[in-house]
Amino acid sequence: QVQLVESGGGLVQPGGSLRLSCAASGSICSIYPMGWYRQAPGKQREVVASISSGGSTNYADSVKGRFTISRINAKNTVYLQMNSLKPEDTAVYYCNAYSILAGVHYWGQGTQVTVSS
User: Fold this and answer.
1) Alpha carbons within 13 A on the beta-carbon side of 23
2) What is the percent of the chain where pLDDT is above 90?
């Protein structure tokens, strides 16, 4: 199994910044594509950003120019730098990793991000 643990969430004011971290551990046998998803109450979970094993990134239109996803493969860790946060960014943020070998998605427990004045 692969375990993902997110950290870095919290309460920030509009315009503020947060940096989320996701550390993977367990039976890691390859470098996985990873991503960040978020889910607000009553909403479907949506992809925020993703990064391939080679470092190629994709972003949801709503966060382009504000969020940056990065990874350090040697640490099995992925980050999400969130700048210029807006109230609509409020959600539980989940880390995801995809094992191509096993064809399995792994999910973290989620970390709450609240943007409010």
Assistant:
1) 5
2) 83
Q: Is 12 helix (H, G, I), strand (E, B) or coil?
A: strand
Owner of token pair 């409010």? 116
pLDDT > 80? residue 62:
yes
Residue-by-residue DSSP string for 19-34: EEEEEEEES--SPPPE
Which of 53-57, 73-77, 95-99 has the lowest average pLDDT? 73-77
Beta-carbon contacts of residue 102 (< 8 Å; ≥ 6 apart): none
Q: Can you tell me the distance from the alpha carbon of 7 to that of 109, in angstroms, rounded to the nearest whole number?
A: 10
- In this prediction, residue 87 carries a pLDDT of 97
The answer to whether the CB of 83 falls within 8 A of the CB of 89 is: no
